[in-house]
Amino acid sequence: MPSSETNSFRARESRRDFIRKTTAATALVASGTLLGTRVFGQGAGSGVAVVVDTSDATTKTPPVQWAVGQLRSALEARGVSVRPFSRLADVPADAECILVGSRRASVVAQALASAGVPVPEAAEALVLARGRAAGHAVLAVCGSDGRGLVYALLELADRVYYGDAPLTVLKTARLVEQPANPIRSVARLFSSDVEDKAWFYDQKFWTEYLGMLVAQRFNRFSLTLGLGYNAPRNVPDSYFYFAYPFLLTVPGFNVTARGLPDAERERNLAMLRWIGAETTGRGLHFQLGLWTHAYEFANSPKVNYPIDGLTTETHGPYCRAALEQLLRACPSIDGVTFRCHSESGVPQGSYEFWPMIFEGVARCGRRVEIDIHSKGIEHKLLDMAIKTGMPVNVSPKYWAEHMGLPYHQAGIQKGEKFQRVAGKTATIEQERRFTRYGYGDYLREDRRYGVLYRMWPGTQRFLLWGDPAMAAGYGQLSHFCGSLGLELCEPLSFKGRMGSGLPGERNGYADTALRPAGDWQKHLITYRVWGRLLYNPKTDADGWRRFLRAEFGPAARDCEGALAQASRILPLVTTAHLPSASNNSYWPEIYTNIPIIGGRFTAVHAIDPNLFSSIDEFADELVKATRSGKYSPLDVARWLEALADGADADLAKAKAAIRRPASAAFRRLAIDVAIQSGTGRFLAQKLRAGVAYAVSQRKKSSAALEQAVKHYRAARDTWQKIIDVSRTAYRDDLTYGREPVLRGHWADRLPAIQSDLAAMEKAFSQLPANVPAQPDKAAALFANALASATKPGQRARLAHVPPASFRRGEPLAIELGVPARESIAQVRLHYRRVNQGEEPRVVDLTRQGNTFRQTIPAEYTDSPYAVMYYFELHSNDGQVWLSPGLAADLSNQPYFVVRQTS
User: Fold this and answer.
1) The pLDDT of residue 389 is above 90
2) 900-901 and 806-807: which strand pairing?
3) Is the pLDDT score of 379 beyond 90?
4) Which among 700, 683, 684 is positioned nearest to 623, based on CA atoms?
5) Helices 615-624 and 633-657: crossing angle, nearest 10°?
6) What is the torsion angle, in degrees rounded to the nearest 10, for the CA atoms of residue 444, residue 447, residue 449 and residue 454?
7) How far apart are CA 884 and CA 871, in angstroms?
8) Banded model confidence at residue 33, pLDDT cuts 50, 70, 90
């Protein structure tokens, strides 16, 4: 018998076009606040009073007025008539009433007090609660400030729009939330004049896009210019790369982008002003990224817009004047992001140039945030920015130029740490190499700047992503040690980068039926999951599930499960097996094969080498019968396969339940889930092949090599399935850069896979059948390791409560209680300061009964940093593992952190 949910969906399906024909619904969708396949009933046939307390100054601001309009449109789209009021006293006593105001409005405070609901003191908090005020029963819609009130209004609009019964929504709504992260930002990158000028000039796009961002509780938008190249070399397309001449003429300087018409330059500035006003008009902070200050482009004879009129002497003064003029011309710009190391086109350590730039910010006459990309940056430069009196942030990459699991690396690769060589002078960038791919040494407890993480677009670029568990993990850990939050480089970032832009639709679909109305609209679930869970990692799942129900009906939960598990695959690969921290050399969405035979596949390290072992490291452990406790490549392979199994199983159930299998939204999801699960299966088998091959080389075993061939063949076969799924869906040249590794199609990668497999098969065929005399021992070694691979979270977590805090310069006592049933023989403590430039210390704990103790000495805690640690446990039967380790959803912090107290 069909479920009630299925019957409800069918009933709505038969009347799906009813409300879409109304003016209110059209206006609402055009606003961008609510987008998706909403299927409506016949409407509520009733009315509601909306009281906006005009005595409250917050309600008079443009963002709140706009959000009130969105709520009204949502109600009218659902057939609920709206009567506006400015005073509650004027509302009929029996009317259903929505009362809108900030916590400073006395009538709102009265309603919330009657409901017993306090408004959080935190900025951007929102409240929905039913109560009574002035004799009326009301639904109070409240915020701790203007932005919080915008969020409250849009949350109610979202519930009304996607709910089955709008009046029931009004009678039952109750919500109190506040942000976990002060900054929740999305960056949109201009990388190609061919691909990006269309959206830059498109006001309709901006109206929809910015409305969507604030509705999903992002609070910042960054328009990022000058990141189209790694450095100013080989630049064919320079549009907005050195941005000032594309926006301004600066009195006293005859600086131009040669070939750019004056009218186009003026149009660019007018458009930037409009974008800024629209952004702040939605209640969003508007950040402008100016990542390049180079005016000369080496090895660029065919650059389309050379920069004329600058010399070494005039460069700094021009940029200072141009920046001041730009900030005055665009009063909506709230902050500016700079890249200040050598890739900006300005030599590292140019301590005469950057103070001029910071001065240009300070001269604009208002508070403007200075955000400095952290790579190679000395604290000396941060101090120069702080001297301006402007707020200053430093913005490290979260996981190199990729997306890993939500936690911050327990350790960084040795190659990222500076090793001084006697007699050689090192550059600043060499000495501070450890700042390239994480928080470096910026998390001092006494810092006078903020720390904002940036998620680089190396792992996930265009495939659909949506894992609530991982997004919640990022929501929990983006304020690590008092950090401010996270900026996401949005989906499709770096499309057409380095002059690789192609005309046409940016999502890369060859099948025109799959193309969304706007390039970003494919990723509506991505924005919804990220935005809401960065705001509140514990938010109600209905915030994205009601959207999925509207899109996929009775298949919604299975779609959610399939996408969530598929979305965990590439971040896991990034964390555990990363051939290059640079996004320019490694792109796991369309994996470029690294050879096992004669290549470096088995030598590839994890980006977190403290928790994950490479193939070669693990093979050494196997043949030497030692254990480090790190997660092995075979563990990771098992996790990848389990995620792929789960994704495929849920996708199969979704295909059985979906009522509109030909819908573009479902087909896009199904294709991208299949590609990601296939990639997980491919890499699981290749990791197994790599381990078997490494063992075979160490033990001279033909049987182990035979196992390697078996797993590599399975990997090859899986890759062919990815090609089959993607062949007609996506174009044959998806371009995110010039080099082959940054463009192309899955089919392009197959010949390299087949070639490496053929080399392995040849090596196996040339081995004598009986070399060594007992080759089965090595094969058995591999088979046993394969069978003993663990699941994440398989080990029981030991009861440990970390110290609440410590005082600088005082000992820090660590104690671990171990139940007798665990049969623990030894416990080791791995600890270091929260400074990635330092090596961890490893010491044994002393056992007293079932308790293990150790003290981190006072001399070690005498630093401006918090302390992090984890345990390495050895059982009596020879097993070794790390604690707390990763949980089953791979989304927790696998170590403990203790911060300082004054």
Assistant:
1) yes
2) parallel
3) yes
4) 700
5) 120
6) 10
7) 7
8) low
